[in-house]
Write a structure and sequence with these properties.
Length: 189
């Protein structure tokens, strides 16, 4: 088993995820605003609390978004996937390759707007049956999915940034060349 802080280089997610984390925190922070507004309407006292609360919620949501982004990372190793997350309560999760059942790449509405994707890794287990790695470009999410599913040994995170768009372009070029030359794969007489 790996020591996360010493041997596994973690890759951070896309910086645009700060906005997603901040927006999520802001929505949660605005939930107590309704009882505050009801109390102000009943008592007529504390109207000044609303702008103070909104300003404080915005500042805290922004800071939370930065902190959540800074502390979220993933690491691909030969025998599995590391995931590190958490702002106040931090956790590091390791998923061995043999426990991975299947993976999927998904795009929510905000992900599509930001041009991002999520990799969802479904595992065999009782405690955490799936893990989500948000904030990936589609090329990196697809490549990470393929590496985990095909059990390609020797691929690490440093390879991901070098093997995304170039690899897909090259595979498209070789397919075009084989069609032009008339070669077909796996022809048997």
């Amino acid at each position: 088993m790996h020591e996360l802080d010493q041997t596994v280089p973690l890759t951070s997610i896309d910086p645009r995820m700060r906005y997603f984390f901040a927006l999520s925190a802001l929505i949660l922070a605005l939930a107590p605003l309704l009882p505050l507004l009801i109390w102000i309407k009943k008592t007529g006292f504390g109207v000044w609390l609303v702008p103070v609360y909104l300003a404080l919620a915005a500042v805290l949501a922004y800071r939370y978004g930065k902190a959540a982004h800074a502390r979220f990372g993933y690491g691909l190793v030969d025998d599995g996937l590391w995931l590190q997350t958490g702002v106040a309560w931090r956790k590091a999760i390791f998923v061995p390759r043999e426990r991975i059942q299947h993976t999927e790449v998904s795009h929510g509405p905000l992900d599509r707007h930001l041009g991002l994707a999520k990799l969802v890794v479904h595992t065999a287990g009782i405690r955490a049956t799936h893990l989500t790695v948000p904030g990936l470009t589609e090329a990196i999410a697809n490549h990470l999915r393929d590496v985990l599913l095909h059990r390609e040994v020797g691929c690490r995170d440093a390879d991901l940034s070098n093997r995304t768009a170039d690899e897909s372009r090259r595979s498209g070029d070789t397919a075009d060349e084989s069609r032009r030359s008339g070669d077909t794969a796996d022809e048997s007489p």
